[in-house]
């Protein structure tokens, strides 16, 4: 079943066409990667899918229902969550609390209820803490649970953001350059994590520059150049496609083939 | 558990112990003024410290609360305590309706919008003489509870102290609740909070309404303590004093709000020894505290003590 | 038990902050043993500072003078003064401090009506006589047992102004008033008094206390058909700017001001624009021009000379109110022969024929001001100085 | 018609006062991100300093220079003693520091000057000029000319001189500016000094209209802050347009609506503008990079 249908999406910032006629579908349970040179519009596309940018044209359908232009929190409620290219963790909170915010949709978040703490509040809190700790453990960060997130190492913050996004129980998780700035060991760790998530039935969409990672885990790859879809197919086919090499490395190398 | 109940317990302890040092009704009045200001500042702290939304119009709600406590009993025969509740409901309604458009603004623009809101309230209280008695203010009733006439600084010291401890407890509960976590999240990154399912606009509005109710109840108590209300309690100088108290004490720290209120209520009483140099000394003190303890009196001292204990 | 949680940390911090508070409580005002304390909460700074400052200077000068002559009933007076900056809440706190902490036997003076009304409950509860230096009639109407006032009420000023206008055939008046306490109260009283004294208010404009240009409002009044005279009810820098705007707009209507500007600094500020302005005020400002047989002359001249010698600043009626309040209090204390506040209050209420800078005071149990309309003189500004209007 | 012209002239007079003070805000905000609530005190120092120097027998032009120098010294002290030591503090803490500084300057002024109101003679007399039925004080033109001169001077300084560009670079990104060798501390100090000077000049120009007293700074700083936010924080054009607009709003509200709610009308319009344009009329729309 197609989890996400994107039809003819266009976004322009003051005359500049960031995205133009972008269309594709993401099937449930697969890892869908989006690659392309810098400035191709990858992050803008993620912003459209998560409600941060309103498309000037086109439609987005998620599990069959129309969601174009819906605000981020409503998209999160129906199961779309993401991480960010430049980290957006909550630095003043502990790692555990960061993940607990991820559970916002599963918890009773009335302010009055929070202030009056009716019976059962402590139990709910304990459940929330335990679940969050499990998620931290899943990304190997149980040991930093009580440390302020702002003080953690960059690689650890990256994984914390993934754990936090997972906490909202997404059906589709959009990861914006999860391996950026990571050393090979950390990238391998993320590689294992992505495959584990896939096994758990979470559909993933990836924006990534690390070709080794992309070709390794992806079921489908879409190449975005200057806001337009160049090609979308199996990883192997994309790798051999001359247009892709040309787009990345310039025409001089295209003739020689990979 | 202790992190949640620590502040209310600590403040309750000070409220109980301080009177041992008091020698006259004047000291009780100063104590009551500190607790009343602290309650308003705790509300502002929920909005500024927790949710990160600046407000230079907090005294507007303080003024509405004070005048509700004075006008409703006088004109409509409402019991003073019912008038206090009505004032809080009125402030919540005003905050709810005005909050939605205002809270779309950020930083200095939000500051000026809230400043304007506070000044509008002060203007209405000054000009609607038929209702509020005009710039010279009007008397406020002395509430009675089943025959017991509540008046006198000592009585109001204990009442305002009790309400403050309750206010701190509720604020602490909010802070560690899912709703409080959501507020802390949107303070750090509205974008990220949104993608995790937090309705950012609604959460900010909730924080604004909560801060308005705290301001209103504090205003009503001041009206009963003084027996008289004047429009300058809603003016921008009072708003700026609340913000100064919140920042001096330490944004985000409940005990900080109480400490900030204590500094700006007690110190000027001490500075009267300097007569005409009074304002100069207060200004120097504000600068010194902010330069030496930029995170605020309480957070800075806490980390200082914590660091010394580690060595 | 070494606990990492921040709870006990905060407890220790609270104790530290509490200690600072304790230092404040311990530092009591040092005072000589056998002096009689008189308290004052005045607006020495803030928007009403030109009221509070001359009041404070007058009280200090004359308390020292009285002590130099042996004090009252053989005991020296001690003056305890606080600056409430015109803030009603601060005035209320200082009133409580004067009564409960400094244990004063009497209080002289809230400078503004707002501050005074906030102090009234304290004086009434503590049964300490309180002589206010503010203008509004609400201070003594309804009469409060322990509360008196020395300045003329704004109602009397309106009556005096409208009487003078009627005499000159000016019956259609445009009023422009400040939205501060004094301006609004005087405006309301004048509207009430106008209906009974045959004068019609044809225009009613207001401006903010700190505004710097009132030409729009004055233009509206100028264009009002049939307006014959202009009344400006306010104190502070507002009236000076109104006068300059009137000259700027070339308005030639006769202008009346309130007793709120009865000081030389108004003439200096308004400059040539003030020429010909009339306003009701105490005879103090024309002390030297009073006829020799006027009983008020020696008092007014005496105070004017002392004040100007000691401060180097021109005399104002605001300082005069403080002089009247202090002297009436001292006379009452002498008559009471004791420092008991209630006895002093009774004597103040019995004040008869007391000559002050504002006129002759005759207090009664129903009139806690004791001035009649005669105490007001109608003054006119001629070439930069006060003169008695004909 | 004469009425309209009179209201417009009153609006422009008051508006020019707000614009002139708002320009002072803009410079410090641009260089250090600090909203300087002591800006009104620099204006006060300009007016009161000139009055007291003149009273001591110094000829008026020299008295004005002394007053400007006094304000510049105050600006340098504010930067050196308060803003620089609290360098790493957040913007809200810096605002509180400027509020403390305003208290200090006012506290000193009330002791070393006095608490009376004072005036300065109009630079070209106080006789009003009649234009199409509206009577205008000559001083208004001095204030408008002053605003124009300072605005163009600031615009030239910010766009045509290296120091000006260094100032804008410091405002945009302090770290990056330091990396390219800009002495950001010097730039900030310069901004405080120049801003204080502008404030003093404003004080001297407006005193013949608004009179002056030790306490006049507070309300002026407030109205100028509203004006500069209305026009778009940190933008000199915004400060001038915002100031003039606020002045005109107040004058027309006083003239045509009810004068007791003239300030309320100005605030309602301010709120409407901000709701429609969340970063002011000319404010830079900041797009959040995610």
Describe the protein:
In chain A, 39% of the residues lie in helices and 24% in strands. Chain A has 258 residues and is an alpha/beta fold. In chain A, a hairpin with a 2-residue loop joins strand 1 and strand 2. In chain A, helix 3 packs across helix 5 (121-138) and helix 5 packs across helix 6. Chain B has one domain. Helix content of chain B is 77%, strand content 3%. Chain B is mainly alpha-helical. With 390 residues, chain C is of the alpha/beta class. Chain D has one domain. A two-stranded antiparallel sheet of chain D has the order 1-2. Chain D is globular, with a radius of gyration of 19 Å. In chain D, strand 1 (129-131) and strand 2 (134-136) form a beta hairpin. At the B-C interface, helix 1, helix 2, helix 12 and helix 14 of B face helix 1, strand 2, helix 3, helix 4 and helix 6 of C.
Low-pLDDT segments, ≥5 res of chain A:
254-258
Say what the CATH topology of the largest domain in chain C is. Answer: Rossmann fold
Give the CA-CA distance, first to last residue of chain C: 88 Å
Largest interface: B-C, 58 and 53 residues
Alpha-carbon distance between the two ends of chain A: 34 Å
Characterize the largest beta sheet of chain A: strand count, sense, and whether it forms a barrel.
6 strands, mixed
Biggest sheet overview of chain C: 5 strands, parallel
CATH class value of the largest domain in chain C: Alpha Beta
């Amino acid at each position: 079943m197609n989890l996400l249908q994107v039809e003819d999406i266009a976004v322009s910032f003051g005359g500049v066409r960031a995205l133009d006629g972008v269309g594709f579908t993401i099937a449930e349970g697969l890892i869908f990667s989006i690659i392309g040179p810098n400035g191709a519009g990858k992050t803008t596309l993620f912003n459209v899918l998560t409600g941060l940018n309103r498309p000037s044209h086109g439609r987005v359908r998620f599990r069959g229902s129309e969601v174009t232009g819906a605000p981020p929190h409503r998209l999160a409620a129906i199961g779309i969550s993401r991480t960010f290219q430049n980290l957006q963790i909550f630095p003043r909170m502990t790692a555990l609390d960061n993940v607990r915010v991820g559970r916002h949709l599963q918890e009773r978040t009335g302010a009055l209820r929070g202030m009056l703490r009716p019976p059962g509040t402590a139990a709910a809190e304990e459940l929330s803490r335990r679940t969050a700790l499990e998620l931290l453990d899943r990304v190997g960060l149980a040991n930093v649970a009580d440390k302020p997130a702002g003080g953690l190492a960059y690689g650890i913050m990256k994984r914390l953001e993934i754990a936090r996004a997972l906490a909202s129980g997404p059906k589709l998780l959009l990861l914006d350059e999860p391996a950026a700035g990571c050393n090979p060991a950390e990238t391998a760790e993320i590689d294992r994590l992505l495959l584990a998530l896939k096994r758990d039935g979470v559909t993933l969409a990836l924006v990534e520059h690390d070709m080794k990672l992309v070709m390794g885990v992806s079921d489908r790859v879409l190449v975005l150049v200057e806001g337009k879809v160049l090609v979308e197919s199996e990883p192997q086919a994309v790798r051999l496609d001359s247009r892709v090499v040309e787009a990345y490395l310039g025409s001089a190398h295209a003739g020689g083939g990979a | 558990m202790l992190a949640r109940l620590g502040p209310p317990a600590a403040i309750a302890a000070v409220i109980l112990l301080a009177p041992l040092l008091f020698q006259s009704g004047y000291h009780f009045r100063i104590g009551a003024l500190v607790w009343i200001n602290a309650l308003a500042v705790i509300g502002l702290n929920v909005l500024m410290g927790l949710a990160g939304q600046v407000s230079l119009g907090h005294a507007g709600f303080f003024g509405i609360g004070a005048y509700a406590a004075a006008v409703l009993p006088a004109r409509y025969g409402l019991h003073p305590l019912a008038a206090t509740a009505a004032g809080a409901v009125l402030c919540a309604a005003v905050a709810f309706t005005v909050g939605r458009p205002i809270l779309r603004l950020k930083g200095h623009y939000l500051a000026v919008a809230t400043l304007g809101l506070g000044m509008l309230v002060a203007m209405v209280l000054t000009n609607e003489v038929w209702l509020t008695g005009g710039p010279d203010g009007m008397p406020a009733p002395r509430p009675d509870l089943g025959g017991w006439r509540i008046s006198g600084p000592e009585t109001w010291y204990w009442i305002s102290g009790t309400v403050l401890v309750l206010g701190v407890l509720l604020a602490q509960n909010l802070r560690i609740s899912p709703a409080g976590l959501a507020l802390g999240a949107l303070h750090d990154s509205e974008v990220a909070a949104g993608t995790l399912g937090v309705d950012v606009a609604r959460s900010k509005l909730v924080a604004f309404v909560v801060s308005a109710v705290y301001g209103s109840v504090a205003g009503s108590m001041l009206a009963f303590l003084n027996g008289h209300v004047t429009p300058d309690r809603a003016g921008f100088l009072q708003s700026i004093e609340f913000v100064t108290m919140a920042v001096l004490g330490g944004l985000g720290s409940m005990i900080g709000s109480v400490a900030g209120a204590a500094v700006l209520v007690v110190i000027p009483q001490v500075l009267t020894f300097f007569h005409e140099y009074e304002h100069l000394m207060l200004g120097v003190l504000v600068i010194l505290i902010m330069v030496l303890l930029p995170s605020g009196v309480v957070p800075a001292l806490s980390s200082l003590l914590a660091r010394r204990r580690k060595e | 038990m070494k606990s990492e949680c921040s709870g006990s940390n905060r407890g220790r911090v609270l104790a530290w902050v509490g200690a600072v508070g304790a230092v404040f409580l311990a530092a009591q005002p040092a005072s000589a043993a056998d002096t009689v304390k008189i308290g004052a909460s005045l607006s020495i700074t803030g928007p009403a500072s030109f009221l509070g400052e001359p009041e404070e200077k007058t009280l200090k000068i004359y308390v020292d003078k009285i002590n130099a002559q042996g004090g009252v009933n053989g005991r020296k007076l001690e003056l305890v003064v606080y600056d409430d900056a015109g803030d009603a809440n601060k005035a209320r706190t200082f009133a409580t401090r004067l009564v409960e902490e400094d244990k004063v036997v009497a209080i002289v003076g809230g400078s503004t009506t707002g501050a005074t009304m906030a102090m009234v409950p304290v004086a009434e509860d503590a049964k300490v006589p309180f002589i206010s230096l503010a203008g509004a009639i609400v201070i003594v109407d309804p009469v409060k047992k322990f509360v008196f006032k020395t300045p003329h009420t704004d109602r009397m000023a309106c009556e005096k102004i409208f009487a003078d206008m009627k005499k000159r055939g000016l019956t259609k008046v445009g009023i422009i008033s400040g939205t501060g306490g004094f301006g609004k109260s005087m405006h309301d009283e004048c509207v009430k008094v106008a209906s009974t004294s045959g004068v019609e208010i044809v225009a009613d404009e207001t401006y903010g206390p700190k505004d710097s240009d009132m030409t729009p409002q004055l233009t509206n009044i100028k264009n009002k058909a049939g307006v014959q005279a202009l009344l400006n009810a306010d104190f502070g820098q507002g009236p000076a700017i109104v006068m300059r705007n009137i000259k700027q707009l070339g308005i030639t209507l006769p202008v009346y001001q309130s007793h709120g500007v009865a000081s030389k600094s108004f003439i200096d500020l308004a400059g040539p624009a003030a020429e010909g302005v009339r306003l009701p005020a105490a005879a103090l400002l024309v002390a030297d021009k009073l006829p020799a047989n006027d009983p008020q002359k020696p008092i007014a001249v005496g105070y004017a000379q002392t004040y100007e010698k000691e401060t180097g600043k021109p005399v104002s009626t605001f300082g005069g109110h403080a002089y009247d309040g202090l002297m009436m209090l001292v006379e009452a204390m002498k008559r009471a022969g004791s420092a008991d506040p209630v006895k002093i209050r009774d004597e103040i209420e019995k004040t008869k024929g007391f000559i002050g800078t504002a006129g002759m005071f005759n207090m009664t149990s129903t009139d806690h001001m004791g001035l009649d309309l005669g105490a007001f003189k109608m003054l006119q500004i001629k070439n930069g100085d006060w003169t008695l209007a004909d | 018609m004469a009425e309209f012209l009179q209201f417009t002239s009153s609006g422009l007079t008051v508006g020019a006062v707000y614009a002139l003070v708002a320009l002072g805000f803009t410079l410090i905000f641009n260089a250090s991100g600090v909203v300087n609530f002591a800006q009104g005190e620099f204006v006060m120092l300009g007016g009161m300093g000139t009055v007291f120097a003149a009273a001591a027998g110094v000829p008026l032009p020299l008295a004005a220079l002394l007053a400007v120098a006094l304000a510049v010294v105050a600006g340098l002290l504010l930067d050196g003693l308060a803003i620089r030591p609290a360098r790493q503090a957040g913007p809200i803490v810096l605002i509180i520091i400027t509020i403390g500084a305003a208290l200090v300057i006012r506290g000193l002024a009330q002791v070393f000057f006095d608490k009376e109101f004072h005036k300065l003679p109009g630079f070209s007399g106080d006789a009003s000029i009649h234009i199409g039925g509206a009577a205008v004080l000559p001083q208004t033109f001095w204030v408008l000319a002053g605003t124009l001169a300072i605005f163009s001077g600031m615009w030239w300084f910010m766009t045509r001189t290296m120091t000006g560009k260094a100032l804008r670079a410091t405002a945009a990104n302090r770290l990056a500016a330091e990396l390219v060798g800009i002495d950001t501390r010097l730039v900030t100090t310069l901004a405080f000094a120049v801003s204080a000077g502008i404030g003093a000049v404003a004080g001297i120009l407006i005193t013949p209209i608004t009179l002056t007293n030790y306490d006049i700074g507070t309300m002026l700083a407030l109205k100028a802050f509203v004006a500069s936010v209305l026009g778009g924080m940190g933008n000199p054009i915004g400060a001038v347009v915002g100031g003039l607009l606020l002045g005109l709003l107040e004058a027309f509200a006083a003239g045509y609506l009810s004068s007791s709610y003239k300030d309320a009308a100005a605030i309602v319009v301010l709120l409407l503008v901000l709701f429609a344009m969340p970063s002011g009329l000319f404010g830079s729309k900041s797009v959040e990079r995610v």
